[in-house]
Write a structure and sequence with these properties.
By secondary structure, this protein is an alpha/beta fold. It folds into three domains: about 190 residues, FAD/NAD(P)-binding domain; about 130 residues, 3-Layer(bba) Sandwich (FAD/NAD(P)-binding domain); about 90 residues, no CATH class. The strands form six sheets. Strands 1, 2, 3, 4, 5, 6 and 17 form a seven-stranded mixed sheet that branches. Strands 8-15-9-10-11 form a five-stranded parallel sheet. Helix 1 runs parallel beside helix 2 and helix 3 runs parallel beside helix 4. The N and C termini lie far apart (about 60 Å).
Length: about 425
Amino acid sequence: MKTHELIVVGGGPAGLAAALGAKEAGVDDILILERDERLGGILNQCIHNGFGLHTFKEELTGPEYAERYIRKVEELGVPYQLHTIVADISPDRKVTYVNSEEGAVTVQAGAVILAMGCRERPRGALGLPGFRPAGVYTAGTAQRLMNMENHAVGKKVVILGSGDIGLIMARRMTLEGAKVEVVAELMPYSGGLKRNIVQCLNDYGIPLKLSHTVTAIHGRERVTGVTISKVDENRKPIPGTEETYECDTLLLSCGLLPENELSKSAGVKLSRVTGGPEVNDKLETSVPGVFTCGNVLHVHDLVDYVSEEARRAGQNAAQFLRSPKTEATREIPLFCEGGVRYTVPQTIDPVHMADAVTVRFRVGDVFRDKSLVLYFDDHEIRRVKKNVMAPGEMEQLILAKKTFADHPDLSRITIRVED
């Protein structure tokens, strides 16, 4: 059986940054496995700008951002295989992949980094009524058809869901000459970044209707119209609030799901909230030697954060390969309360942690003039005043290792939203 020190599953922004982090930390035997025909992942179809402000201190398009990492991977000679599907990962880090040149191959990895990204929630998961005519797309599918395959998608459009991809596609289709009639959002708040609401909807006069959903799709062969209705506090349509829009296209931007089938086969414990693996402060999963990063761990709002997190995952995988942790550890759980939905990581090892660990999370509602409060057991450690917090934007707190020295008997860490 072939062996590799490190196998990175996925050649998108997370996989590339993770491989570079490991390479820079001294790992020479790395293999990146990517199912697409090129490296770069979803960034290849994101031709709008706005990437790289944190990482490179300048605005780049998605392909430009990806190209900088691809060029670095090639300069350092990190091997990768394209058109390669990873079929299985076992708990003892045996990776089985398939491609047209080698057929089915199983290799033994010293460590594995999961960087498979995420997928869109499809129509079948939304329970939308009506027939199944042509003209119903997920927003990401429409983005690929337009930006990479040069296909027109539609001329009169309704968008359900206000995730970032849907907002960006509202602008993209407008620039291509289509008329976006409305963006309907089930929740009473948008799921996208504030800047995308301003730049993609407000600047083009596209209405956003919160607390609305699609209650009918008209047409048999092709979409001819869509009916949306206002919903109550239980997200149920309110009779008498129906509005019908004539259109030929319905785009769905109703959330992203971490792509974790391989994580399950490896025996990784998954979070019921994020859908991604539960990890410690090293970004290591419940399976020793299996690390994870990027949107397969939890859905990020900025690719810059993906790259920063993935680089740490690569460095931590390198550390594991040099000296697998065998001594007993004391992992302290992180709890989220009062409006915080989840945290990543879920546990902290105060002895072996880095000097500073970034904890990222999302809130479950829109909060104004509130505070994020960090507790060690019942002791308040930090209070950060926030003007606005929204589910569409990630929050973060940085935990310093030296802070733990004064709390040797610490049993739990809690992050809360408070007045």
